[in-house]
Amino acid sequence: MEKDVINILIVDDEKYEGILMEKSVAWESEGFHITGNVQCAEDALALMEKQTPDIVYTDINMPRIDGLELSRRIREAYPAVHIVIVTGYREFEYAREAIHIGVEEFLLKPIQSDELLAAAVKLREQILKEREQQSKDVEIYPVLCQELLRRIVTGYIKSEEAEEKLSEYRIQLWKNKGVRGVLLIMDLEDHDVLLKLLEIMNEALGEKNYGYFSLEKNKIFFVVEETPEIKKLLGNAFEQITELGKDGTVAASVSCYYEEIDDSPKILSECEEALVDTMRDERKTLIFYEDYIEYMQQISHSYPVNFDSYRIAVKSGDQEAAVGFIDHYLEQYIFNGPLMISQLRNLGVLLFHNTMSVLKESNKHLDNEEQVKILENISGINTLQEFCRTLYALIEGTIQTISRNAGGNTVAQKAQEYIEQNLDREKLSLNLIASDLFVNASYLSRIFKQSVGESITKYIMRKRVEKSMELFDTTDLKVYEVAAAVGMPDAHYFGTSFKKYTGKTVNEYKSKNRTLSGK
């Protein structure tokens, strides 16, 4: 008598009133099933999108959307659903409006259990007659086929009953060969898109070689007959489907094939597993379960044996090299196959722990709250963009933290000390300093300017001129000797730079200083 079960949805903003309505009647033994018990109209409508009940018991006085407005919306979207108003309101206007909307029953609180059951029993007779009529209606045939496939794939009915129903509905699937499942995600709100989608499937597979049913608003599940060329046929169909859904995400997964009807739930679970774990960015994705399993086995041991080069890059402040390590890994191990969410999350965790070890080696640390937040971000990664944004930010923050130690000996200070000690080197430059300090040149340039307030090039020139002024004041060295001593052996270039910095020529400066010193 499973087909005669009547599904009931209860809607009452007073939680305990709803519980009382559900518990005061032995619904199951009377042939009814409570599909939900919610406290607002919004939840009721959301639940009905997933499973349409036969009867809705609803209160009138509810916040935001009251019971009468809910009844109007149900009547528009689900005209076959029967509505029973259960309320404490006794005004005639409410009853009259409810009848106008199409409410079959109007019960007053405090409601008695026998009244609740009596209303349901009365409506059941009408519902069963409607079902009988629908089953005879040719227009309902596709819906019945879809519902049958759904019940088979979800394991709701077993092989003996399934075979009987498949024969009754003239469905050839499982009769001669095995089947595969195909789970497709795309925007199907436009009915024309669904019709075009079915045209593509008809052309690729043949009208009788597949069936389908909707899982959710933007998810559709196909049961397709196994053939030697099924992968090629589905691949060709998917290319056309991506064009159909070119303005949004289109992703599909295909299960292994199974011959026995009782194995049918596997085709759904395999599709869901592969699709949930397959990265979906802006590109289109088609993944076969066999390939998914093989690929996951290949990558299970594909992580680098160690992260030495990554740790060295982070410790030395070479952000470019650290990011390059990640980019190289992605290119080598991930871009060659489907992008797996779990794979990126695992890589993120490994990078996180290696980054924390670098901080520890540098006598730095993040507090527990910061670490937990970063790990939460990594565990929530769903796209490649989120992965890069999260890990690149971690690298940059770590490098900045390492560059600030307790003694104030920052990377910028090390660069200043290096410049002071090497002013006489003619080819003293940003790249040379970065190389000798084992840091990335662009990172050093940025950090130096932030800390000192001027670029390294200007700082070197200023220090050279200041050093030359000191030598002119304290020694009798000739101009070319001073120029060489500050790493500028080209006397003409030295003279030009000196005037640009001091506003005086070398001779003017020396003459003025002799006058001031009495020489």
TrEMBL record:
SMART domains: HTH_ARAC, REC. Pfam families: HTH_18, Response_reg. InterPro entries: CheY-like_superfamily, Homeodomain-like_sf, HptR, HTH_AraC, Sig_transdc_resp-reg_receiver. PROSITE patterns: HTH_ARAC_FAMILY_2 (PS01124), RESPONSE_REGULATORY (PS50110). It is found in: Cytoplasm. It comes from the Bacteria. Its main location: cytoplasm. Keywords: Cytoplasm, DNA-binding, Phosphoprotein, Transcription, Transcription regulation, Two-component regulatory system. The modification 4-aspartylphosphate is found at residue 59. Residues 413-512 form the HTH araC/xylS-type domain. Residues 7-124 form the Response regulatory domain. May play the central regulatory role in sporulation. It may be an element of the effector pathway responsible for the activation of sporulation genes in response to nutritional stress. Spo0A may act in concert with spo0H (a sigma factor) to control the expression of some genes that are critical to the sporulation process. This is Stage 0 sporulation protein A homolog. It comes from Blautia difficilis.
